[in-house]
Amino acid sequence: MASPSLMDTLFQRSLDDIIKGLRHQQTGESPFISKVVEEIRREIKSTDLHTKSIALQKLTYLNSIHFVDMSWAAFHAIECISSPNFSHKKIGYLAISLSFNESTSVILLITNQLRKDLKSNNEFEVSLALDCLSRIGTADLCRDLTPEVFTLMTSSKVFVRKKAIGVILRVFGKYPDAVRVCFKRLVECLDGTDSQIVSAVIGVFCELASKDPRSYLPLAPEFYRILVDSRNNWVLIKVLKIFSKLAPLEPRLAKRVVEPICEHMRRTGAKSLMFECIRTVVTSFTDFESAVKLAVAKIRDFLVDDDSNLKYLGLHALSIIAPKHLWAVLENKEVVIKSLSDDDPNVKLESLRLVVAMVSESNVVEICRVLVNYSLKADPEFCNEILGSILSKCSQNVYEIIVDFDWYVSLLEEMSRIPHCQKGEEIENQLIDIGMRVKDVRPELVRVGRSLLIDPALLGNSFLCRILCAAAWVCGEYVEFSRNPVELVEALLQPRTSLLPPSIRTVYIQSAFKILIFCLHSYLLQKENIGNDVASEVLGLKSQGECIGNSALVTGKAPACQEQDEGFTPRDPNKSYEDLSIINDGDGQTSALLEKGFTHESVINLLNLIEVALGPLSGSYDVELQERAQNVLGFVDLIKQEIPNHLVSKRASKIVDLVHDAFNEELGPVSVNAQEKVPIPDGLMLKENLSDLEAICGNVQLPSTISFSLGSPFGESVVASVSIPQSKEESETSSESTSLLAEHRKRHGLYYLPSDNKESLSNDYPPANDPKSSDNTNDDAQDLVKLTGQSLLTKKRTSHAKPRPVVVKLDEGVVAPIIAKKPDTNDDLLSDAVRDILLVVEKPDLGNPSSRRSKHRSHGKDKSRKSPDKKKSDEIGDHGDKGKQKSRHRHSKHKSKQRAEGPLNVVAQTPVIPDFLL
Questions:
Q1: Which residues contact 650 (CB under 8 A, 6 or more apart)?
Q2: CA–CA distance, 508 with 781 (Å, rounded to integer)
Q3: How far apart are CA 394 and CA 384, in angstroms?
Q4: CA-CA distance, 292 to 570, in Å (whole number)?
Q5: What is the pTM of this model?
Q6: What is the pLDDT of residues 204-247, one digit of tens each?
Q7: What are the CA-CA distances from residue 30 to residues 20, 27, 202 (Å)?
């Protein structure tokens, strides 16, 4: 066996050779890596530990850099750590730290080797074992090695003690019962004089307090002493983090701690400590006015600094304090606004958050104007950040800060025309949502939708597809507010709509169909009105005053009872808009087209227009487009047959009335809790899973199927399954069927799951809204700051020209159920164990705090006289005999169970902070 090992050693490539070989590869690294891995698999089986360790070192490098799997070498790594050679041991521990996890099958085999290295006289071997335990420690490893870690916490070597204290965090997390053994000694380390030890202990408590700060309130005196006496900035930063968690839990503690924190702010010159003091004040001490004012003054120093990092920290601190003290942001509004033009993207984002935080009902128009101006000059990424912030803020709490919805809808139109806008989905959702919630804004919505639809240049912008979809839906749903419905049909069916995705074109066709129904219904009512003497009975106009206008449709004038309403008349779900004279265009004027009424020629021309535009789509490869086009064409053909020579048949009138009534149904927003309000039918048994399905259908042979999803543009999907019996002949033609399926997917890609591949459509039209044509985007930052400074001044609410319209809200005060994250069981066990230990420790030793330390020192002297064989039992003896310890542990569990079953004693269970601090 010696000669193969010798040959492997002589011709084995080192790690440097592997790295050089990877750098010189011209055709690719994969073949070379595969070859090296094969060499490693052969070399790692060698009995020579040097050869094995070099192979493991190379495998570890490939795993770290090129993600090569090394789980198969787990046992070989354990062999390396058992070597007496430190270099071999180091390579083995590195491999274990990087590749082992709780599911590694051989992880329990390293327990004895870790225990042996933790007891080693070589501090570097102890350090390797501690570092490995901190990375891969499982519940079993932490339980078995807790006595060794406990012993190392009092090591004479600072290097080892510091690492042992750091490992405690992992041990407590995996094995909470270790608190009963090690927590007392961990607290005693807070009294140490070595800054490295204190720093390590404070770091551990900082992490523990971040999970459950209430358990560590009894240690507030120790933390307060360190806050006052320590001169180590990093220790002070950790202590401040602890007090930021403890102060909200105990008001008396906050009063005591706030002054030392302010003293550190006045005295220190370290920016890191200064910022931590500021963050502690603005997060946990906002009720102390003097401390907040001092923190805001120090934030100002950060904001005016030339360093972008410090400026970012100042803006971040302002964003934390803004919800409770907005005046701090208003005092620094000039710097905040100028930061929107900063070169650092992080600074710009923080300043944007602060500007949005200043938005209120009184200044929303001015600030949105400033932000839109900045978005016109910004890069695409920051432009969309600005637009997203505007959309999010304005829609907050169901458009709470919006008073003039006509202005906001026009703002949405302006935002959608910005060249870099990529917020099509958000704008689409808000246009539809506002239309359903705010009835008074529907005329303006139709005007905005018409403006977007008639512009053919917008159809080539892929980011505007969703907005155009909303515009089409709005114009079709609220067509009664349109000045010229025929113009909308022409815009919806123009040839350039072929640039749109099929899902958007289906909405266009549906909206054109709605407008056609509206026009036909108006025409038929007009014809019916001329043929009847009593028009009000046919139209169904029943007002409170029984006002009758016999010739309202003919003359285009409203009845006398409706002439009093000067504003818009939104569609009421209980009232039919059959009287065309009450239709307004958005400026309070009646549509000229509808005043004249529809003629037979105009209706025939409209039908011909739809027939010509949708004819080619009846043979479309897209199933949804084809079906919608054929449905509309069939309806058009039916209507043309029923209205020949200026005559209207009863059948045509009935068909149009039925479809019009279906489309005239009012649509409203859906409550988030709507599904919960649906009663469960009687006899329906709902279970958490379908475990009984197998028992019910056990004897049913289900045929193998191929399922595909048919998705509609409205988010619904229909799953169709085609039964395909398996046979030998079909298995032979699987490749052919696969190619046919691929061809079908290529042709009807809309009805499959969406993929990342998108077809690029040609666009010969110039882009809409060329930035060069905008003259108002050349304003410099000073003018924008001046404008914003005037708009941000606190002022009384101005009287608006018209009151805020009614916004439909559902489920007032009811929010969607939020599933809270279930706390970790280990965290609960750890918190309970810490509370028990602190309650036991604080009560008997509060009068004489030095007794614990003197007892600990006496035990340490006795340990030094014992033989090495008895060290382990004596270390555990510091807290009592091991058997007694287990019995006490079981007894304490029994007592805690009895306390839980008995009446709750709040005074006994609440940690008390000693009065000498308060």
A1: none
A2: 42
A3: 15
A4: 51
A5: 0.66
A6: 999 999 988 999 999 999 999 999 999 999 999 999 999 999 99
A7: 15, 9, 47
